[in-house]
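Lab notebook, design round three. We kept the backbone fixed and only want residue identities now. Task for the bench partner: fill in a sequence for the structure below.
Input structure tokens:
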């Protein structure tokens, strides 16, 4: 008999190997273990396999969802944001109305009202599209700040703000 603790430990190790799963999204954490079925031994490999049912928290970004992200790279064509476990959120210049590139020293985008989009700035954005990437087991997100209450967020006094 294999101890349940060993099965659970192996399950968690296997889940952390995946960044995300197609149709499920990012697995944030296992909240409840429902059942562990009796193990089946494979004679050829001398390994056991167990059917495990569990409940978990996931993050699957959907079109139209409003989220927050931190700018981690500025390019001429737009900015890349990190939002929770998602490391590929792209905000194109076409989806940033009234912002223009200022490429002196550290590149940044500046709006008509002088708000700035640069590295380290928190952005409130809406998800325009998502794409599952099989090779990297990741979800790419296309973002926009077109609309009310979207764009840079004032974070005065929030040292170490993390998403």
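Proposed sequence:
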């Amino acid at each position: 008999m294999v101890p349940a603790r060993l099965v659970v430990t192996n399950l968690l190790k296997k889940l952390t190997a995946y960044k995300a799963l197609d149709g499920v999204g990012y697995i944030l954490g296992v909240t409840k273990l429902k059942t562990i079925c009796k193990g089946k031994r494979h004679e050829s490999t001398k390994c056991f396999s167990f059917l495990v049912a569990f409940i978990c928290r996931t993050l699957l970004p959907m079109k139209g969802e409003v989220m927050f992200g931190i700018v981690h790279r500025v390019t001429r064509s737009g900015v890349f944001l990190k939002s929770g476990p998602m490391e590929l959120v792209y905000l194109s210049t076409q989806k940033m109305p009234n912002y223009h590139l200022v490429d002196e020293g550290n590149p940044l985008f500046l709006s008509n009202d002088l708000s700035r989009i640069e590295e380290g700035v928190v952005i409130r954005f809406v998800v325009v599209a998502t794409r599952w990437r099989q090779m990297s087991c990741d979800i790419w997100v296309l973002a926009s700040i077109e609309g009310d209450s979207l764009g840079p967020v004032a974070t005065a006094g929030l040292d170490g703000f993390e998403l």
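Keep this in mind before ordering anything: Residues 70 and 122 are 5 Å apart (CA to CA).
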